[in-house]
Structures are given as C-alpha cells and as structure tokens.
Amino acid sequence: MNPDLQDLKAKALIIHQRLCEVYGCPIPYFHSLDPLSELISSLLSHRTRNADSGRAFKALRARYPDWRAMMNAPTEEVEETIQGVTWPEQKAPRLQTVLHAIEERHGSLSLDFLGAMPVEEARAWLESIPGIGPKTSAAVLSFSMLRKAALPVDSHHHRVAQRSGLIPQSTAVGPSHAALAALLPEDWDAQAVYDHHEVMMLHGQRCCFFSNPACGRCAILDLCPTGQGRLEGRRVPAMKPEIAARDHPSSRSRER
C-alpha cells in the first residue's frame, strides 16, 4: 500500500475516534424515509436550510397523495408548493424530471431495489440520472431506510477534511467523496460510516467554522496543520470563494 495513503487512513481513523468522543457515537439517524422520499428531500435541501427544505417536503406530502401525483402535477403548482427553498423554479422541474427518469429506467416509481445492490453500483445507478450527484446518491443510500455504507460529504465535512489535511485544499466537494471514502476501513458498517460523516459535519458546525474557527478548543488540533498555523500566526491559504458561498447562512446544516 502507498505509505502516504496508509498514513492518511491512520489519521482519518484517529480523527474519527477523537470526534466520536466529543460528539458521541453511535449517532442516531435523524429520520427514516424510504429511498425515493429521501431523494426528494435531498434534492430540496441543496443550498437550503433544513428548516426550509423540511417545510417544503411536508408541503409536498400534504398536497399530493403520492410522488406519482407530484410528478404529474403542473410544474407551476409544484414550484408554488416548495417556495421556501432556494431556486424553486429550478427544483420543481428537476424533481419531476428525475422521477420520470427513475420510472422509465426501472419500470416503477421506487428505489427500494437499490437495497440489493452493492453501494458503488447503487450510487452509479443514481448518478446516471441527470441532477443526481455524489452527495445526493450517498445521502439516499445512507440516510434512507436502506441504511447503506455510503459516505456523504457536505460543506462542513469537506472543510474539516481540507483543513486537517485529509484531502488537498484544491479538492472540490464532488471528487472529495471518493477520496474520503477511500480512507475509511473497508469493514465499517453503515452506522460507522454515517457516524463519520456526522461527526465531521458537527465539528464543522460547532468548532471548525468557515470564519474564525475555534482552533484553541479543537479536539484534533495536533492533527490539523491549518489550525496549528493559525495559532502560530503563520499565513494560512484562504479557502476558495465558492466554498465560502456554500457556508453562507442559507447552506444546509443538520437541525437537531
């Protein structure tokens, strides 16, 4: 094995163990939706606060008896129903297009069949549909009742991984999914992979802030070259503007 990769794997495991001590593992799943409903929830949540996307999801469920009814409803009506999210004019037609694609490719409006697939095969099937990227595919498999060992990476998780040196600063969120998943033990079950995402995300929300991170109380400071540089007064490379935009108050963070 590449010695550098082995070192990164060991570092990722230590970070996981430290953050689990801080935030408490195992972490309960925050909801239990069927995978198709989780997909809709995830698409609504893009660049939107959980409270707002949650209200939009509930509004869709209240207005339509099932997802087929929503898929076949007038797009303007769906857009009106999800007004609280960012870009409802884009998300309404995307939701309907994605649902049509699922039915055309699978023959029914369901994603339950993904439970019988290996994680990578299931993710590839989802990501073959325009509008579904790596974060959404992982969220569907991990957060839904399928409870599969897929690693989502949100902006907070991504920031902690960059600053701690698990991935280069130049690695965007999309490609970071494969790079960070490769650092986790192959024998981890779905709960362990979910815990890893959650503690990295929580650390980004509660300590490793985009602006003025609380490095002095960070449980992984000795493993974080960025934090050590900040406290020692060394110049730390600025994060990319597009990353800053993802952490604007409108970005998604888990509400508990």
Written overview of the protein:
- This protein is an all-alpha fold and 256 residues long.
- It has helices spanning 3-23, 35-45, 50-63, 67-72, 75-81, 88-106, 119-127, 134-143, 155-164, 173-181, 190-206, 225-231, 241-246.
- Helix 2 packs across helix 3, helix 7 (119-127) crosses helix 8 and helix 9 (155-164) packs across helix 11 (190-206).
- The longest helix has 21 residues, at 3-23.
- The protein is globular.
- The model is unreliable at 241-256 (pLDDT under 50).
Key features of this structure:
256 residues, mainly alpha, 13 helices, single chain, globular, 57% helix
What portion of residues is helical?
55-70%
- The count of DSSP E runs of length 2 or more, i.e. the number of strands, is 0
Mean pLDDT: 91
**Sheet having the most strands:** none
Binned strand content: under 5%
Global morphology: globular
Instruction: Compute the CA-based radius of gyration.
Output: 19 Å
Number of helices: 13
Short description:
57% of the residues lie in helices and 0% in strands. It is mainly alpha-helical and 256 residues long.
Chain-wise SSE layout:
Blueprint: H1 3-23, H2 35-45, H3 50-63, H4 67-72, H5 75-81, H6 88-106, H7 119-127, H8 134-143, H9 155-164, H10 173-181, H11 190-206, H12 225-231, H13 241-246
Helix pairs in contact: 1-11, 2-3, 2-8, 5-6, 7-8, 9-11
